[in-house]
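Reopening this one. Same input as before:
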Amino acid sequence: MLDQFRKNYEYDYWANDKFLKALEGMPEPPEKAVKLLGHIFFALDVWLARLKKEENLSRFTDPNPTYALGDCREKLEELHSSWKEYLGGLGTGDLKGKITYANTQGKRFEQTVQNVLVHVVNHNHYHRGQMAALVAQGGGKRPNTDYHGYVFEIGEVKAL
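Same output, byte for byte:
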């Protein structure tokens, strides 16, 4: 199962990269789509900090941070590296471990690492669906970021 989680996060990076490239290729990328990408980055950042049980999470006050499109590549690469390191250090038994955290309104929760890992990828997938509509409406080429496209691109789908 741990290998699948690692693969899911590689897929998430791949899909976010495709959307970043699509937005960069547009003469005027839709502002809302760029904001959604920033929200995805926020989610990746805050959930990783929670999973790592960081003490000071005060930097996570705005779930919709504004990133200039030009800064998004650096942020995406930074997050990818950090998630890869975190997931590489996890053992199978860690998935059932629990974390306690506060949301941006200060309400406290407890849940398993496994549930968080599933949530983050699904959350990002949902918002990429919104971005797809915005990119198409803005005259851009909507990238194919379905999981099938990912496994096809990495060579795990064979044409017969």
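So the earlier flakiness isn't reproducible anymore. For the record, The CA atoms of residues 12 and 106 lie 28 Å apart.
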